[in-house]
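Why run this: before we spend reagent on co-expression, it is cheaper to look at a predicted model of the complex and decide which construct boundaries make sense. The entries below are exactly what would go into the expression plan.
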Amino acid sequence: MCLLLKGGLVVDPDRNSIKKADVLLEEGRIAAIQPGLKAPDAQTIPVEGCYICPGFIDMHCHLREPGEEMKETILTGTRAAARGGFTAVVAMGNTKPPADSRAVIELVKGQAEAAPVPVYPVGCATKERKGLELAEIGDLVEAGIVALSDDGNPVMNSEVLRRVMEYSTMFNLLIISHCEDTHLSAGGIMHEGYISTLLGLRGIPRAAEEIHVARDIILAEMTGARLHIAHVSSAGSVRLIREAKQRGVRVTAEVTPHHLCLTDEAVMTFDTNTKVNPPLRTPEDVEALCAGLRDGTIDVIATDHAPHTLEEKDVEYNYAPFGISGLETAVSLMWDRLVAKGILTPVQLAQKMACNPAKILGLPERSVKVGNAANLTVINPQLKQPVRVESFVSKGKNSPFNGWELLGWPVLTIVAGKIVMSEGKLTGSERS
Amino acid sequence: MDFKRKDILGLQDLSAEEIELILDTAEPMKEILGRELKKVPTLRGHSVVTLFYEPSTRTRTSFELAAKYLGADTASIAVATSSVQKGESLRDTAKTIEMMGIDVIIIRHAAAGAPHLLSRYVKARVINAGDGAHEHPTQALLDMFTIREKKGRLSGLKVAILGDIAHSRVARSNIWGLTKMGAEVRVIGPPTLMPPDIHKMGARVFYRWEDGLKDVDVINVLRIQLERQQKGLFPSIREYTRLYGLDEEKLRCAKPDVLVLHPGPVNRGIEISPEVQDGPHAVINEQVKNGVAVRMALLYLLMGRGEEDVLTA
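The model came back. Tokens follow.
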């Protein structure tokens, strides 16, 4: 089956260029890229004015399976990913049971066989995510994990994290760190500042994140481990990471769309969809995060997709779980808020959402190049429409962006040469 | 002026005019309280329920009596639960109450924003009787009523709020209300009990009583929750009392005719000395009486329909 994408704008991060060309896909690979291609046997898809990007990878999402299938399953989560323009996802291991054993990784991979986009699992750094004893990291690597993380249970004991990092170096394995000093953040449910004072809600100071970022950088420097800082939220963290990179520490970092698009002022309505960890911070932090994206301090935009049921979120702010359902809004939010506003170029967006995640995770390179696997995300920069949570295919409707009019939406998701999403609609749930 | 609100969720969103109207309306209500026969038929046929997720005697009783004196029927629901896992969701409780034909729900809840959530679920009117550390509008209104009654005005007065500002809904509602009415508000407490950026609400911040209490017209003493000490927010009750307990020595720093308020219940001898609590400056008992009057005023303004002068009934 051949596909011919006609008249699009090919985004080429390698040459930092965008050129108008047709793209021919054959047998799951990119067969040709040039203007005026003719392929009578191919299914032709007009994509005039649309950007053809290397396939986006969400390197931080929660698919909830096994254990919390009422929130999401691997199938619904990957369908949401496809609908949101992602051609692959990295699934965090805070499932029930946690992904601290080969059995759980194999279960995830088995379930993912029917998924529209590939799932790359993250294994736990410690047994049961307790931060006490190393998980069987070697066995997890053999089972196919792409990184280690205890996710929302940060390893508080520095000695344990040191050993995790040291041990990981023999596999050159990435450590993804959720940075939070849980003593400083204890009981907190939003950013600590004027708004938390005004609302009387317990705050989480920036220092809770920054202390951990600093510590993890120091340990990465000491052990030579590859460290990736998840969902950076504060200006101070950006500063620490920038400084560490300048010194040559092997550290990379990601930011979420919600930390780029919202501030703690959004909490004033007590909308529990704004409750997220790390919390939404201030305009100064958002500015620093954008600057970090531009200067390369922050390598990746990842969703931290955290679906919850309506019942769990439809409660008092204190009692709601943390998390935002992000897979189906991320690309559009980033186009509308960053690209359309000139903060990032389309090429930079492709780097943050496709090329850099692949590089950091050690996956095959993502670029629109002849011979490469045909994983593509096509974005229509003219399409303007509102976010509607009712139309989410994710089970998690917990989005603070419901009703937002956004400009620029993914209109085609192509995985290994096969269309899995077209014009916002999924095209069959099976991946061959 | 007309009072057009559906709910009373906090003083942050009330205007000075609305606050003034409530305080003015409370004056004749207080007169009713002084009558031998304290019942007027204004709210006859209306029903009021108190939904309390936190223990309380005075606020709840105050609301119930306020409703009864105005002729409303009352019911009370005490929810003995500390966590959401047990028991019914607020949404379901709200629907259940609504189906019983309730006109006003008075809610107290440990979680900030619970009254706001409730107001989205029901058509009934909602009055916030204290939500977490967020707001306690009727307490601040009765505090302001008491101050205005004794001092004749609010504008231009220096009012100090003393104690655990960080965890206090009383402090927040008083700051909103008093600053709107033109008073100068000071908050005094240790840095560990002072929430960040509170000066942006319009209050001046003091850590030492010697500075904060100087020449004030009013001191509102907050209750200190004894478990804050175990959380490491101050070293001991003894030191707290020494540095922040209002005694006669500290009182001398204020104006000679200073008023001393306390929302109750008092930790006698801890945040306030017995001499001050029982002394001539304290109006703590008066506050309780005014609380009923202010709550009557609120219920009347929210529900009392029609042109007739109900207070002559």
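The first helix of chain A runs from residue 74 to 83. The mean pLDDT of chain A is 97. Bring this page to Monday's planning discussion.
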